[in-house]
Amino acid sequence: MSEREEKFERMLQDTLDEYNDVVNKMEKLKTENKSKTATYKQLLAKKLTLQNIIARYDIYGLVER
């Protein structure tokens, strides 16, 4: 695998890890009845952005299922 391919793989994995972290934080806030806070809304925006990035990887067949 080339250095460039390794960088793409690392970026994809970091994006997936960050997405999972955001989802976990949102779930924690939701269980604490804090789903209307600014923090929760910021996390929601970040989650949607990461979903869009992951969807683009998926379009090109780079996300393993």
Describe the structure.
- The protein has 65 residues and is mainly α.
- Helix content is 78%, strand content 0%.
- The protein contains two helices and no strands.
- The longest helix has 29 residues, at 3-31.
- It is elongated and about 45 Å long.
- The two termini are 21 Å apart.
- The mean pLDDT is 95.
Structural class call reads mainly alpha
Helix run count: 2
Q: How much helix, percentage-wise, in residues?
A: over 70%
**Mean pLDDT over the full residue set:** 95
- Unreliable runs: none
Bulk shape:
elongated
Determine the strand fraction and express it as a percent band: under 5%
Helix-strand topology string? HH
N-to-C CA distance? 21 Å
Count of beta strands: 0
Largest sheet: none
Q: What is this entry, summarized?
A:
With 65 residues, this protein is mostly helical.
Layout of helices and strands:
Layout: H1 3-31, H2 38-59
Helix pairs in contact: 1-2
